[in-house]
Amino acid sequence: MVLVLCVWIINKFISFLKLQWGRLSIEAIVELLYGFDYSLYRLWLQIYGEPDETDAVIFNELPRRCRFRHVSANCPKKYCETCRVDRVIMYINRAKVSIDIAHLTFSHTTFYYAIASAWLRGVNIRLVTDSQMIYARGSLVQRLIAAEMPARCSPVHVMMHHKFCIIDGDDRVLQLDREEHRVHSRLWRRKGYVMTGSLNWTKLGTGSNYENVVVTSNRVVNELYQKLFDDMWEYFPVLNMTSFRTKTHANNAPDIVCMPWKFWQ
Length: 265
What we know:
Blueprint: H1 2-20, H2 26-48, E1 54-59, H3 81-93, E2 98-103, H4 109-120, E3 124-129, H5 141-146, E4 151-153, E5 163-167, H6 170-179, E6 193-197, H7 203-207, E7 211-216, H8 219-235, E8 246-248, E9 254-256
Parallel strand pairs: 2-3, 3-4
Antiparallel strand pairs: 1-7, 2-5, 5-6, 6-7, 8-9
Protein backbone atom coordinates (compact mmCIF):
# COMPACT_ATOMS: atom_id res chain seq x y z
CA MET A 1 0.00 0.00 0.00
CA VAL A 2 2.80 2.38 0.92
CA LEU A 3 4.72 1.51 -2.26
CA VAL A 4 1.65 2.16 -4.40
CA LEU A 5 1.15 5.52 -2.72
CA CYS A 6 4.81 6.48 -3.30
CA VAL A 7 4.55 5.58 -6.99
CA TRP A 8 1.34 7.60 -7.28
CA ILE A 9 3.00 10.66 -5.74
CA ILE A 10 5.99 10.41 -8.09
CA ASN A 11 3.75 9.99 -11.16
CA LYS A 12 1.66 12.95 -10.10
CA PHE A 13 4.77 15.07 -9.71
CA ILE A 14 6.17 14.07 -13.12
CA SER A 15 2.86 14.52 -14.97
CA PHE A 16 2.37 17.96 -13.46
CA LEU A 17 5.89 19.02 -14.49
CA LYS A 18 5.27 17.83 -18.08
CA LEU A 19 2.00 19.69 -18.23
CA GLN A 20 3.28 22.97 -16.81
CA TRP A 21 6.89 23.02 -17.96
CA GLY A 22 6.31 25.43 -20.81
CA ARG A 23 4.16 27.84 -18.80
CA LEU A 24 5.24 27.32 -15.19
CA SER A 25 3.91 30.31 -13.28
CA ILE A 26 4.12 31.26 -9.60
CA GLU A 27 0.60 29.91 -9.10
CA ALA A 28 1.55 26.59 -10.71
CA ILE A 29 4.61 26.25 -8.50
CA VAL A 30 2.52 26.96 -5.40
CA GLU A 31 -0.04 24.37 -6.51
CA LEU A 32 2.73 21.86 -7.09
CA LEU A 33 4.31 22.40 -3.69
CA TYR A 34 0.94 22.34 -1.95
CA GLY A 35 -0.16 19.11 -3.63
CA PHE A 36 3.13 17.42 -2.88
CA ASP A 37 3.02 18.59 0.74
CA TYR A 38 -0.48 17.17 1.28
CA SER A 39 0.45 13.88 -0.41
CA LEU A 40 3.50 13.62 1.83
CA TYR A 41 1.29 14.21 4.85
CA ARG A 42 -1.04 11.37 3.82
CA LEU A 43 1.98 9.12 3.26
CA TRP A 44 3.22 9.98 6.75
CA LEU A 45 -0.12 8.88 8.20
CA GLN A 46 -0.01 5.62 6.23
CA ILE A 47 3.44 4.77 7.56
CA TYR A 48 3.33 5.99 11.15
CA GLY A 49 -0.38 6.38 11.82
CA GLU A 50 -1.82 8.75 14.37
CA PRO A 51 -3.67 7.19 17.32
CA ASP A 52 -7.10 8.61 18.08
CA GLU A 53 -7.42 10.74 21.18
CA THR A 54 -10.72 10.37 23.05
CA ASP A 55 -12.04 12.08 26.17
CA ALA A 56 -15.37 12.29 28.00
CA VAL A 57 -16.26 15.14 30.37
CA ILE A 58 -19.23 14.45 32.65
CA PHE A 59 -21.17 17.27 34.29
CA ASN A 60 -23.70 16.74 37.08
CA GLU A 61 -25.35 18.66 39.88
CA LEU A 62 -23.50 17.10 42.85
CA PRO A 63 -20.94 19.71 43.93
CA ARG A 64 -20.60 23.07 42.24
CA ARG A 65 -17.36 24.93 42.92
CA CYS A 66 -14.52 24.30 45.30
CA ARG A 67 -15.03 26.41 48.42
CA PHE A 68 -11.31 26.88 48.87
CA ARG A 69 -8.65 28.13 46.48
CA HIS A 70 -9.01 26.21 43.24
CA VAL A 71 -5.97 24.44 41.78
CA SER A 72 -6.99 22.43 38.73
CA ALA A 73 -4.13 19.97 38.84
CA ASN A 74 -4.74 19.01 42.49
CA CYS A 75 -8.45 19.61 42.93
CA PRO A 76 -9.82 17.49 45.83
CA LYS A 77 -13.32 17.35 44.35
CA LYS A 78 -14.26 14.40 42.16
CA TYR A 79 -16.83 16.52 40.30
CA CYS A 80 -15.65 20.11 40.19
CA GLU A 81 -17.44 22.46 37.80
CA THR A 82 -14.34 24.60 37.28
CA CYS A 83 -12.16 21.57 36.48
CA ARG A 84 -14.66 20.22 33.98
CA VAL A 85 -15.16 23.56 32.24
CA ASP A 86 -11.39 24.04 32.06
CA ARG A 87 -11.02 20.61 30.48
CA VAL A 88 -13.40 21.55 27.67
CA ILE A 89 -11.75 24.96 27.27
CA MET A 90 -8.37 23.22 26.95
CA TYR A 91 -9.41 21.78 23.58
CA ILE A 92 -10.68 25.16 22.36
CA ASN A 93 -7.35 26.72 23.32
CA ARG A 94 -5.54 24.11 21.20
CA ALA A 95 -7.14 25.46 18.00
CA LYS A 96 -4.53 26.73 15.54
CA VAL A 97 -6.45 27.18 12.29
CA SER A 98 -10.23 26.88 12.60
CA ILE A 99 -13.22 26.35 14.89
CA ASP A 100 -16.70 25.54 13.58
CA ILE A 101 -19.38 25.87 16.28
CA ALA A 102 -22.95 24.55 16.11
CA HIS A 103 -24.73 25.25 19.40
CA LEU A 104 -28.33 25.79 20.38
CA THR A 105 -27.47 28.54 22.85
CA PHE A 106 -24.37 30.27 24.15
CA SER A 107 -24.30 32.28 27.39
CA HIS A 108 -21.37 30.96 29.48
CA THR A 109 -18.76 33.73 29.77
CA THR A 110 -15.81 31.32 30.17
CA PHE A 111 -16.60 29.73 26.79
CA TYR A 112 -17.15 33.18 25.34
CA TYR A 113 -13.71 34.41 26.39
CA ALA A 114 -12.06 31.26 25.03
CA ILE A 115 -13.75 31.73 21.65
CA ALA A 116 -13.02 35.48 21.65
CA SER A 117 -9.37 34.81 22.47
CA ALA A 118 -9.10 32.31 19.61
CA TRP A 119 -10.70 34.81 17.22
CA LEU A 120 -8.29 37.55 18.27
CA ARG A 121 -5.24 35.33 17.76
CA GLY A 122 -6.29 34.65 14.17
CA VAL A 123 -8.25 31.39 14.32
CA ASN A 124 -10.94 31.21 11.62
CA ILE A 125 -14.28 30.76 13.43
CA ARG A 126 -17.76 30.12 12.08
CA LEU A 127 -20.92 29.91 14.19
CA VAL A 128 -24.25 28.20 13.50
CA THR A 129 -26.99 28.67 16.09
CA ASP A 130 -30.75 28.69 16.62
CA SER A 131 -32.71 31.67 15.31
CA GLN A 132 -34.87 32.00 18.44
CA MET A 133 -32.30 31.31 21.15
CA ILE A 134 -30.21 34.32 20.09
CA TYR A 135 -32.80 36.38 22.00
CA ALA A 136 -32.57 34.28 25.18
CA ARG A 137 -31.59 36.09 28.35
CA GLY A 138 -27.82 36.27 28.71
CA SER A 139 -27.06 35.16 25.15
CA LEU A 140 -23.54 36.14 24.09
CA VAL A 141 -24.05 35.47 20.40
CA GLN A 142 -24.62 39.17 19.75
CA ARG A 143 -21.16 40.06 21.01
CA LEU A 144 -19.54 37.60 18.63
CA ILE A 145 -21.57 38.93 15.71
CA ALA A 146 -20.65 42.49 16.70
CA ALA A 147 -16.99 41.52 16.38
CA GLU A 148 -17.74 40.52 12.75
CA MET A 149 -17.56 36.79 13.39
CA PRO A 150 -19.33 35.01 10.48
CA ALA A 151 -22.51 33.23 11.56
CA ARG A 152 -25.65 31.52 10.31
CA CYS A 153 -28.93 30.80 12.11
CA SER A 154 -31.61 28.20 11.52
CA PRO A 155 -34.80 29.06 9.62
CA VAL A 156 -37.57 30.27 11.92
CA HIS A 157 -39.74 27.17 11.47
CA VAL A 158 -37.08 24.71 12.74
CA MET A 159 -34.85 24.42 15.82
CA MET A 160 -31.08 24.07 15.46
CA HIS A 161 -30.65 21.72 18.44
CA HIS A 162 -27.06 20.55 17.76
CA LYS A 163 -24.30 20.95 20.35
CA PHE A 164 -21.00 20.26 18.66
CA CYS A 165 -17.77 21.99 17.84
CA ILE A 166 -15.13 21.08 15.23
CA ILE A 167 -11.59 22.19 16.02
CA ASP A 168 -8.95 22.18 13.26
CA GLY A 169 -10.84 19.67 11.12
CA ASP A 170 -8.87 18.24 8.17
CA ASP A 171 -11.34 19.31 5.47
CA ARG A 172 -11.71 22.82 6.87
CA VAL A 173 -7.95 23.33 7.17
CA LEU A 174 -7.46 22.20 3.55
CA GLN A 175 -10.24 24.52 2.39
CA LEU A 176 -8.67 27.52 4.13
CA ASP A 177 -5.23 26.61 2.78
CA ARG A 178 -6.60 26.63 -0.77
CA GLU A 179 -8.45 29.93 -0.24
CA GLU A 180 -5.31 31.58 1.15
CA HIS A 181 -3.05 30.06 -1.58
CA ARG A 182 -0.61 28.68 0.96
CA VAL A 183 2.56 26.99 -0.23
CA HIS A 184 2.33 24.24 2.40
CA SER A 185 -0.53 22.69 4.33
CA ARG A 186 -1.16 23.50 7.99
CA LEU A 187 -2.26 19.91 8.62
CA TRP A 188 1.20 19.14 9.96
CA ARG A 189 1.12 21.37 13.02
CA ARG A 190 -2.36 20.73 14.45
CA LYS A 191 -4.66 17.95 15.57
CA GLY A 192 -8.36 17.92 14.71
CA TYR A 193 -11.07 17.35 17.32
CA VAL A 194 -14.83 17.06 17.45
CA MET A 195 -16.58 17.98 20.71
CA THR A 196 -20.18 16.84 20.97
CA GLY A 197 -22.71 15.79 23.60
CA SER A 198 -25.66 17.18 25.53
CA LEU A 199 -24.00 20.26 27.06
CA ASN A 200 -25.17 23.73 26.11
CA TRP A 201 -22.56 26.40 26.79
CA THR A 202 -24.54 27.87 29.69
CA LYS A 203 -24.04 28.19 33.45
CA LEU A 204 -27.12 26.07 34.01
CA GLY A 205 -25.58 23.32 31.91
CA THR A 206 -22.18 23.28 33.62
CA GLY A 207 -23.35 23.98 37.17
CA SER A 208 -26.71 22.28 37.62
CA ASN A 209 -27.59 19.82 34.87
CA TYR A 210 -26.53 16.26 34.19
CA GLU A 211 -24.60 16.71 30.93
CA ASN A 212 -21.79 15.19 28.89
CA VAL A 213 -19.15 16.23 26.38
CA VAL A 214 -17.35 13.65 24.23
CA VAL A 215 -14.13 14.69 22.51
CA THR A 216 -12.52 12.65 19.74
CA SER A 217 -9.82 13.14 17.13
CA ASN A 218 -11.11 10.30 14.93
CA ARG A 219 -10.90 11.44 11.30
CA VAL A 220 -14.01 9.56 10.16
CA VAL A 221 -16.12 11.22 12.86
CA ASN A 222 -14.53 14.57 12.09
CA GLU A 223 -15.40 14.26 8.39
CA LEU A 224 -19.04 13.36 9.14
CA TYR A 225 -19.53 16.34 11.44
CA GLN A 226 -17.78 18.66 9.00
CA LYS A 227 -20.18 17.61 6.25
CA LEU A 228 -23.12 18.28 8.56
CA PHE A 229 -21.80 21.71 9.50
CA ASP A 230 -21.03 22.67 5.89
CA ASP A 231 -24.57 21.73 4.83
CA MET A 232 -26.05 24.02 7.49
CA TRP A 233 -23.59 26.76 6.58
CA GLU A 234 -24.65 26.59 2.93
CA TYR A 235 -28.42 26.58 3.44
CA PHE A 236 -29.01 28.57 6.66
CA PRO A 237 -29.59 32.35 6.41
CA VAL A 238 -26.82 34.77 7.35
CA LEU A 239 -26.86 36.09 10.91
CA ASN A 240 -25.54 39.64 11.34
CA MET A 241 -26.20 42.74 13.45
CA THR A 242 -29.25 43.73 11.41
CA SER A 243 -30.84 40.41 12.37
CA PHE A 244 -31.34 41.52 15.97
CA ARG A 245 -34.43 43.35 17.09
CA THR A 246 -34.50 46.58 19.08
CA LYS A 247 -36.92 46.54 21.97
CA THR A 248 -38.35 49.53 23.75
CA HIS A 249 -39.33 49.89 27.40
CA ALA A 250 -42.63 51.42 28.43
CA ASN A 251 -40.78 54.64 29.23
CA ASN A 252 -39.42 54.68 25.66
CA ALA A 253 -35.87 53.99 26.84
CA PRO A 254 -34.27 51.78 24.18
CA ASP A 255 -33.15 48.29 25.17
CA ILE A 256 -30.81 47.18 22.41
CA VAL A 257 -30.54 43.41 22.24
CA CYS A 258 -27.16 43.57 20.54
CA MET A 259 -24.14 43.82 22.85
CA PRO A 260 -21.31 46.41 22.86
CA TRP A 261 -18.92 46.38 19.94
CA LYS A 262 -15.89 45.37 22.02
CA PHE A 263 -15.09 41.84 23.08
CA TRP A 264 -13.97 42.56 26.58
CA GLN A 265 -16.76 44.90 27.74
